């Protein structure tokens, strides 16, 4: 594996939850295949340009000196609706079910027009990358053509993604619904077409919108397809109290919302369920047993007034947990905003229950990187900078021309990193890499 680039300087990543490793004087070698060949901690210049250069056969000109910048892993957004980016920052005045009807279904129905789709999809992917999101789990719409178009745009731009054609065959408006047969057929065709494109970074994901908009027949068939093709699965669960009651009334014979997905073979280690706010302990036990993952979407949950998810309950059970923007239930396409709201969410639980240990920002950073990599079943490839993984990274510049925060002489590297997490934004994102390819 020939070296293409060596990053020299400060490198920050998570190994375990609550353990952010801040490496100064590090050197990280990226191979031509895009994977990480070596990570050397605390090495002097003469070692980098001497014995290390000799061992791995690279020249001085291949070394990138980070200077005052630092390297962190790319963020992983485990739940986002690409078409809803059109509405991000608007329509924030209604709870989930009314919000879907008034704002969300109408905008998604417009993606039957490819010209409209191209405009929004180009902008959302560019925005996500600028924010340092190197992996994203996207819901598209019910439209096959537009969903493939999103996959092509993501592929061109070089992002890593799971992209789902949304399935919904009931309880949806007349202008935005499929028949059961259409939904099954276009899902199969979508997987076939996407696989033909042969981009290993862009994968299909089975996407029943949520149980209320899918008939038993559709849910059953999607479970079969997911098993046959070995694909990931994404949906929503237990986001809003009225939604939970609705599911109970539609599936009276099943024990719980979680049981609905489990019953149709849609809850396993390849599953990502967004929100999961109002799950019972028994349902969480089922998540643990099935090894299904959860996407925590606090920006959305605060904006739509859905509730505060208890991260500690999830983490205690060893359930895989990542962060999601849930654009546009969430107004922000930045995982940094989600990190901050995950802290506020946990603090709000602590306010009422002093036995709850508030989430730390280090833990939230872990969830945004390593946690997410586990949720998407790619922890052997992404999430941090351990050798053998693929190089998905952001170069952060705390001194960029219009940085939104200031650094003072007494600030340690740890302080600067924390300032970036709390006050930083895309103005500090100098460059972004996915599998070694520079995409920003
Ligand atoms: N539940 C079903 N569809 C949606 C959606 O588009 N956004 C959110 N936040 N929840 C949903
Ligand atoms: Zn969502």
Automatic annotation (TrEMBL):
This protein's UniProt keywords: Hydrolase, Metal-binding, Zinc
Catalytic activity: guanine + H2O + H(+) = xanthine + NH4(+)
Record text on cofactor binding: Binds 1 zinc ion per subunit.
Function, in words: Catalyzes the hydrolytic deamination of guanine, producing xanthine and ammonia.
GO annotations of cellular component type: cytosol
Name under which the protein is recorded: Guanine deaminase
Domain Amidohydrolase-related: 70-439
Principal EC category: hydrolase
């Amino acid at each position: 594996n020939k070296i293409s680039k060596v990053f020299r300087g400060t490198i920050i990543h998570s190994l375990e939850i609550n353990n952010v490793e801040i490496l100064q004087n590090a050197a990280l070698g990226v191979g031509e295949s895009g994977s990480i060949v070596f990570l050397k901690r605390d090495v002097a210049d003469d070692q980098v340009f001497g014995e290390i250069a000799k061992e791995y056969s690279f020249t001085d000109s291949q070394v990138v000196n980070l200077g005052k910048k630092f390297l962190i892993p790319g963020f992983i957004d485990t739940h986002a609706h690409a078409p809803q980016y059109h509405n991000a920052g608007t329509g924030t005045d209604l709870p989930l079910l009314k919000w879907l009807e008034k704002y969300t279904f109408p905008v998604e129905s417009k993606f039957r027009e490819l010209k409209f789709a191209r405009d929004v999809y180009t902008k959302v992917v560019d925005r996500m990358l600028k924010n340092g999101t190197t992996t994203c789990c996207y819901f598209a719409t019910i439209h096959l053509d537009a969903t493939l178009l999103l996959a092509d745009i993501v592929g061109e731009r070089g992002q890593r993604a799971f992209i789902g054609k949304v399935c919904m065959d009931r309880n949806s408006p007349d202008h935005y619904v499929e028949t059961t047969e259409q939904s099954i057929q276009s899902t199969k065709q979508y997987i076939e077409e996407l696989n033909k494109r042969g981009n290993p970074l862009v994968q299909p994901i089975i996407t029943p919108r949520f149980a209320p908009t899918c008939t038993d027949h559709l849910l059953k068939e999607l479970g079969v397809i997911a098993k046959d093709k070995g694909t990931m699965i994404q949906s929503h669960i237990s986001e809003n109290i009225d939604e939970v009651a609705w599911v109970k009334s539609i599936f009276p014979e099943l024990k719980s919302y979680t049981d609905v997905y489990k019953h149709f073979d849609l809850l396993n280690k390849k599953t990502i369920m967004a929100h999961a706010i109002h799950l019972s302990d028994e349902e969480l036990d089922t998540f643990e047993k099935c090894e299904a993952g959860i996407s925590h979407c606090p920006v959305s949950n605060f904006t739509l007034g859905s509730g505060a998810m208890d991260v500690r309950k999830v983490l205690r059970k060893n359930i895989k947990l990542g962060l999601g923007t849930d654009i546009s239930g969430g107004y922000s396409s930045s995982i940094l905003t989600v990190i901050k709201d995950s802290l506020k969410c946990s603090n709000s639980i602590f306010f009422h229950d002093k036995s709850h240990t508030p989430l730390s920002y280090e833990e939230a950073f872990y969830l945004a990187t390593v946690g997410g990599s586990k949720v998407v079943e790619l922890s052997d490839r992404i999430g941090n900078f351990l050798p053998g993984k693929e190089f998905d990274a952001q170069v952060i510049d705390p001194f960029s021309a219009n940085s939104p925060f200031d650094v003072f002489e007494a600030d340690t590297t740890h302080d600067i990193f924390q300032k970036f997490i709390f006050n930083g934004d895309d103005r500090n994102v100098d460059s972004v890499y996915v599998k070694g390819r520079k995409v920003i």
